[in-house]
């Protein structure tokens, strides 16, 4: 099994992320209907569909450029709270990989770290607050903990397990930040919408990457 893929081939990972969000449009909005406005899936799908069209119009681009396009669309055309957060996330993936012709497990780890750092600059949310950070932080930390001793694929699989566990954990939490905090304990028993979309994005990143290894 290969331990890297080219930045050019990595455009398929970008496509995988876009397709995943679009296909989960109704699911994300359904999850969001408990503590939010019920439009998370609509807004996310709208943004990723717009990015998809822009990418198709660009011709030959690589993974880093694809993530940069997603970032720009989410920040400039979607807005709300998720636009800037996920825009910063994808900007991080792009910046950390744009000078790399080959994407190794170390480069991927740097991409995750930069994406996390970008979001952390915009929110004070931490583990236990019932947000996307309940998925992102354990996923990134788990990947990094595996990096020195495991294969690229093993790192991804452990990251996926941690992300899934993080998502499940939000069901046991009362929302403390964001719109869902308005209903407090009534959000118990329901997973967070932002955590759900974060899980789907990380899952798509991992599966798309494994398809290239």
Automatic annotation (TrEMBL):
Listed under catalytic activity are:
dihydroxyacetone + phosphoenolpyruvate = dihydroxyacetone phosphate + pyruvate
Q: Name one Pfam family in it.
A: Dak2
Q: Which terms in the Gene Ontology molecular function aspect does this entry carry?
A: glycerone kinase activity; phosphoenolpyruvate-glycerone phosphotransferase activity
Q: In which pathway does it act?
A: Polyol metabolism; glycerol degradation
The enzyme's E.C. designation: 2.7.1.121
Q: Does the keyword Transferase apply?
A: yes
NCBIfam families in the record: dha_L_ycgS (TIGR02365)
**Which enzyme class?**
transferase
Could you list the residue ranges that cross the membrane?
none
Q: Which PANTHER family does this entry report, sorted A to Z?
A: TRIOKINASE/FMN CYCLASE, TRIOKINASE_FMN CYCLASE
GO CC annotation terms, alphabetical: cytosol
| Residue ranges occupied by any DhaL domain in the UniProt entry | 8-207
Q: Does the keyword Lyase apply?
A: no
GO biological-process terms attached to the record: glycerol catabolic process
Q: What is this protein called?
A: phosphoenolpyruvate--glycerone phosphotransferase
How does this polypeptide assemble, per the annotation?
Homodimer. The dihydroxyacetone kinase complex is composed of a homodimer of DhaM, a homodimer of DhaK and the subunit DhaL.
Q: What does this protein do?
A: ADP-binding subunit of the dihydroxyacetone kinase, which is responsible for the phosphoenolpyruvate (PEP)-dependent phosphorylation of dihydroxyacetone. DhaL-ADP is converted to DhaL-ATP via a phosphoryl group transfer from DhaM and transmits it to dihydroxyacetone binds to DhaK.
Keyword field: Glycerol metabolism, Kinase, Transferase
């Amino acid at each position: 099994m290969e331990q890297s893929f080219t930045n050019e081939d990595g455009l398929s990972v970008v496509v995988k992320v876009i397709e995943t969000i679009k296909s989960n449009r109704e699911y994300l909005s359904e999850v969001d209907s408990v503590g939010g406005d019920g439009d998370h899936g609509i807004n996310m799908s709208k943004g990723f569909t717009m990015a998809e069209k822009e990418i198709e119009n660009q011709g030959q681009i690589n993974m880093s450029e694809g993530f940069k396009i997603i970032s720009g669309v989410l920040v400039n055309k979607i807005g709300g709270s998720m636009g800037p957060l996920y825009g910063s996330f994808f900007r991080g993936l792009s910046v950390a990989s744009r000078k790399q012709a080959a994407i190794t497990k170390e480069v991927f780890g740097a991409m995750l770290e930069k994406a996390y750092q970008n979001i952390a600059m915009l929110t004070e949310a931490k583990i236990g607050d019932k947000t996307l950070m309940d998925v992102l932080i354990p996923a990134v930390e788990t990947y990094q903990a595996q990096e020195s001793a495991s294969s690229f694929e093993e790192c991804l699989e452990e990251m996926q397990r941690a992300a899934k566990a993080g998502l499940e954990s939000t069901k046991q939490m009362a929302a403390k930040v964001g719109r869902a905090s308005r209903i407090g304990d009534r959000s118990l028993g329901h997973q967070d919408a932002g955590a759900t979309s974060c899980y789907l994005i990380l899952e798509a990143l991992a599966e798309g990457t494994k398809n290239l290894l």
